[in-house]
Amino acid sequence: MKRDEYAIDLELHQTRDIQDKHVNGELTVVWRDWDKIIKNEPKMIYVSSVNSGERKGPHVHTKRNSYFVCIEGKVVFILKDKNGKYIEIQSSHDKPVMVFVPKNIPSAHVNISNSSSRVLALADIAWRPDDNEMENVTFDDYDWEKLNSAESS
């Protein structure tokens, strides 16, 4: 599988003041029902945070497909495809990329910014505290150290 199978570049639009039309912010389109970029409509939407330099995962979801986009900070998502190849996708508030993690594909994400990052997640199956559909895995052959140098970029 290739990066394009997992990464969806998102629309970023400037917003303008209603009186003098100066740029007052931005709007990022994550999901619209008519776009059809998400195969199974979300049943759960949540925001998670990850502290600077910290990692979540790697783990695999056995039942749910998930979509992630960094909405504050900068995060690198690492997926391990069915051939054992690692795919790295960066998402940040400046360059929002939605990352698709299909069920049974192990993944992790690492905050490479100097402050806490926030990630918006959309899942096609809602999480329940007792569902036990997540399995922890290891990426023993992945070079985690290279992400330390990414923090300064």
Give your account of this protein's structure:
This protein has 153 residues and is mainly beta. The chain has one domain: Jelly Rolls (Sandwich), CATH 2.60.120. It contains 1 helix and 12 strands. The chain has one helix at 146-150; strands spanning 7-9, 11-16, 23-29, 44-50, 55-61, 66-72, 74-80, 86-92, 97-101, 107-111, 117-123, 134-136. The chain has a 5-stranded antiparallel sheet with strand order 1-9-6-11-4, with no helix packed on it. It has a 5-stranded antiparallel sheet with strand order 8-7-10-5-12, with no helix packed on it. Strands 2-3 form a two-stranded antiparallel sheet. The longest helix has 5 residues, at 146-150. The chain starts with 6 loop residues before the first strand and ends with a helix. The mean pLDDT is 91.
Keywords:
mainly beta; Jelly Rolls; 153 residues; five-stranded antiparallel sheet; globular
Strand order, biggest sheet? 1-9-6-11-4
Secondary structure category: mainly beta
Report the CATH C-level class.
Answer: Mainly Beta
Instruction: Estimate percent helicity.
Output: under 10%
Shape: globular
Low-confidence regions: none
Number of helices: 1
Estimate what percentage of residues fall within beta strands: over 45%
Number of domains: 1
End-to-end separation in angstroms reads: 27 Å
Q: Provide the residue-averaged pLDDT.
A: 91
CATH H-level superfamily: Jelly Rolls
How many DSSP E strands?
A: 12
Taking the sheet with the most strands, its summary is: 5 strands, antiparallel
CATH topology: Jelly Rolls
CATH architecture: Sandwich
What's the Cα radius of gyration? 16 Å
Order of helices and strands: EEEEEEEEEEEEH
